[in-house]
Design brief:
- With 412 residues, the protein is an alpha/beta fold.
- It has 3 domains: 9-77, Orthogonal Bundle (Arc Repressor Mutant, subunit A), CATH 1.10.10; 85-144, no CATH class; 147-399, Vaccinia Virus protein VP39 (Rossmann fold, 3-Layer(aba) Sandwich).
- 34% of the residues lie in helices and 20% in strands.
- The protein contains 15 helices and 15 strands.
- The protein has helices spanning 9-19, 27-33, 43-48, 85-95, 106-109, 137-143, 146-153, 165-171, 201-218, 231-245, 287-290, 300-307, 342-352, 368-376, 387-399, and strands at 25-26, 54-61, 64-72, 113-117, 132-136, 159-161, 177-182, 191-192, 195-196, 219-229, 248-255, 271-278, 318-320, 358-361, 379-383.
- A hairpin with a 2-residue loop joins strand 2 (54-61) and strand 3.
- It starts with 8 loop residues before the first helix and ends in a 13-residue tail after the last helix.
- The relative contact order is 0.10.
Length: 412
């Protein structure tokens, strides 16, 4: 029987965590307890891998699911399934090789079909035939909680939540937002509400990775995340987490004029790293939303492209825009230490979303990105620990005066 029970290392480590916590643990406590590089975005799948051999009880407590270890299953039942084999076989036969979610077929699309629960067991679903359907691997991968995401996420849309962003992330359902926009504190000692939040580099990066992992969980499979930071911080994040969590990662560079950060020992830092993280090969990118006009419009090849409907070329991977706080003529009107020019944030958001899509702005900050989303017709969600900043942003939104640089912000 031992040869039957082959489980990944991560699943076995999760099993040990459950055994030493008889009162139960939620997914966030499990993630924090995992050692080394095992911070993952699909821990629910690792938990399901335990079900054929162990009794894992699931109990809803508030907005979280608590997992409790209740012992091993009888070896005669391995691998256990709560869907009888005859029911599974009949449902597959009745589906006639067609996914009941997306409509693709085994014969034409070379998909693999599974019998699964419509409402997940972790959310109270049972194994009655009314709660079973036949879906392909791709739909099964993106299905979990997605059927309730729209209703649940609607309670958070277009609001500034006065709480820690990690707390807000834990409340949001999986696969529920179209774009993540992160402009985290750069850990350089800038005062925020009269306090400095500088951490040891190792602690800062550990927190940055946890934030990125939770952000990945709530991002839709065809969504994109943008992480803006100083080059060193983003380099660590890229190598230690993003490379294994995302289908593809591209780096863009924001270049700016600067009157700070000069040093007699090195060149002045006058750029920031923007990591564009694509969760899957199906990621959405809307070139026409951000296309720049062709320069040589008399060129025969360019004329042909324009005739075929092309609006221009994609922007290059480096962007120039003055810093708002230190160089912009609007500096005296800015009441926040870190403001990204709306020229940058608008281009990033437009490139991967369409109107009515949802953008999760991890840190409300000055509110400029919220203003951009509103003008572009995107839904937004954001958080800030400081109630005073939350009130200021809401007041500015009411007065419609946040975005300083862009006067003609279209709604692509």
């Amino acid at each position: 029987m031992d040869s039957v029970r082959k489980l990944p290392k991560v699943s076995l480590e999760i099993l040990d965590i459950l055994k030493i916590n008889p009162g139960g643990v939620d997914i966030y406590a499990i993630r924090e307890s995992l050692s080394g590089s095992e911070v993952q975005q699909h821990l629910d799948r690792r938990l399901r891998e335990l079900d054929p051999f162990y009794i894992i009880e699931r109990e809803r407590k508030g907005k979280s699911t608590v997992y409790k270890y209740k012992g091993e299953r009888d070896p005669e039942e391995w691998p256990y399934t709560d869907i009888p084999k005859d029911v599974r076989a009949r449902l597959l036969e009745e589906a006639k090789g067609t996914c009941q979610m997306c409509g693709r077929t085994v014969s034409k699309d070379n998909i693999k079909l599974h019998v699964d629960h419509k409402t997940p067991k972790s959310l109270g679903g049972d194994s009655s035939e009314d709660n079973l359907w036949v879906i392909c691997s791709d739909c099964n991968e993106g299905k979990r909680n997605s059927f309730i995401s729209t209703d649940k996420i609607s309670n958070y849309l277009d609001k500034i939540h006065n709480k820690d962003i990690n707390e807000l992330l834990r409340e949001l359902p999986d696969n529920s937002v179209d774009c993540i926009y992160s402009d985290i504190d750069y850990n350089v000692g800038i005062k925020y509400s009269g306090k400095r939040y500088t951490k040891a580099f190792e602690k800062y990066m550990s927190d940055y990775i946890v934030l990125a992992a939770e952000s990945t969980r709530v991002l839709k499979d065809n969504g994109s995340a943008f992480f803006i930071n100083y080059p060193k911080n983003n380099a660590y994040l890229w190598v230690q987490y993003l490379d294994r969590a995302y289908y593809d990662v591209q780096e863009y560079v924001w270049v700016y004029n600067s009157n700070i950060g000069h040093s007699p020992r090195r060149f002045t830092t006058a750029h920031r790293s923007i990591l564009h993280c694509m969760k899957s090969k199906e990621n959405q990118f809307y070139k026409s939303n951000v296309a720049e006009p062709y320069v040589n419009q008399t060129d025969r090849r360019i004329r042909r492209l324009m005739k075929d409907g092309s609006k221009g070329r994609s922007p290059y991977s480096w962007f120039y825009a003055d810093m708002v706080k230190n160089v912009s003529k609007w500096s005296k009107k800015i009441d926040h230490p870190c403001v990204i020019p709306s020229k940058i944030s608008s281009m990033l958001i437009k490139s991967v979303t369409k109107p009515k899509d949802t953008v999760l702005i991890l840190f409300a900050g000055s509110g400029s990105e919220i203003d951009v989303c509103r003008k572009l017709g995107r839904h937004w969600i954001s958080a800030d620990l400081d109630s005073e900043y939350c009130e200021k942003i809401e007041r500015k939104l009411d007065e419609y005066i946040i975005t300083f640089e862009e006067k003609n912000n279209d709604s692509c």
